[in-house]
Please model this.
Amino acid sequence: YFAHRDDFSRPGRVGNFVLRRARRLYPSYWILLAGVSAVAFAVPAFREGLPQDALIWLKTALLLPQDPAVTGGTGAPVLIVAWSLHYELVFYAVFVAFILSRRFGAVLLAVLLAWWVLTEQGWGGPTFPLQFMKPHYLLIFVFGVISGWVVTQGVTKGAEGQAVPRPGTWLVVGGLLYLACAGFEVGEMFARSLAASPGRMEGVSLLYGIASALLVIGLVGLERRQPRPVPALLIQLGDASYVLYLAHFPIISACAKFFTSMGQGSESGIVWVSFSVLCTFVLCCAFALLFHRIIEAP
Model:
């Protein structure tokens, strides 16, 4: 929204929008998809996780939603975190509708919200793809648009420094709400005796989305009111965040296997686990930074 808000109701801008989004999304994804697939193919124990059907491979490459009952897991084989990119493409489609016409976009968004209400009443469609379109995920994108609208009001009116009143309040409320959600989930985990969670409730996902929007609004407001130098490493990590998202799961999976095998018989307990988590975190960040600098940015 921040980058394309001036494109609404200007159909001639659709091509530029689609090209920029595709260039941002696909090249890094394809490279990592190919790399992880090659490793999985080289290790016999991992091969069963690879698609066996050419059509599934094509859909995987294009980030088209797939039936989890067919592909397994999240509906995104190989790089399972790509499931959220399926919803991102839906959001982009809605955004294209707004670029074609604000009215068309509003109607499409209203239809999706009506569908969400129906699913909340217990009718989510019998099978895929109807089950996929449960747009509480899309609402989280809407929260992002709202935060973008809030922080751009001052820019639009030529009073950039006054765009967000009381930014500290937005930040505190967002932080407390985020911590409350996290506390609820940790409490639920301990209530289940550390057993696997059945999955995050939709209401909690929405609250996380609201909290994140409040945090973004507060941080942007503080930045404009009193600009502070940001450490270069944090800026670089921000630039590399897409790669970090795509790569973190396979890296965590590999590190978990490695550190578990290395720590067998160890008396260190929590110390070894903490060391393993720290090393995994650093490795994920280092890989993302290198990939972004050497491949993604060029």
